[in-house]
Amino acid sequence: MSPCPPATQGAQANDRNSGIETGHQDRENLGRSRGGLSTKIHIAVDTRCRPLSRVTTPGQRHDSLATDAVLKRVRIRRAGRGRPRTRPDVVLADKAYSTAKIRKMLRRRGIKAMIPQPSNQIAGRQARGSRGGRPPAFDTERYKQRN
pTM to 2 decimals? Predict the structure, then answer.
């Protein structure tokens, strides 16, 4: 019996952040799920499907927890000279990324968000009536370009 438990057991494996924000990740980025051990790969790509940044997380982590880490690593080469841009023009993402925290982070960085709202968020906003605010901008034609 080994003195150290595997990286997928104990409090560290269940820690919500598990080093994503700090840059220190689980050694193997393996996480337990219903199907066994798994890993998630989060990739930001350009319109021609070329990777801009990549982060791996354990399989049980929610997709939205890696958003900040992926965006911090984005480097977009310029046509001419100069250092690469670190801010994409727009983020096309699925409903898993439709959280107030992510939308606020994108707004702070000046990035447009093309993220559809899940039906429960739409119902919650409508239930609040005029206090629910208006829905976020969403262009269905542009969203269709998401891979």
Answer: 0.69
Read off the pLDDT of each residue in 97-111 and give the average, rounded to a whole number. Answer: 92
| Six-digit token string for 122 | 């739409």
CA distance linking residue 43 with residue 119, whole number of Å: 26
Return the pLDDT at 28.
62
CB contact at 8 A, 84 and 76: yes
CB 53 within 8 A of CB 105: no
Coil, strand or helix at 44: strand
Phi, psi values for residue 87, rounded to 5°: -125, 120
Nearest to 91 by CA among 142, 129, 55, 18: 142
Any bridge partners for residue 46, and if so which? none
Distance CA 53, CA 91 (A): 13
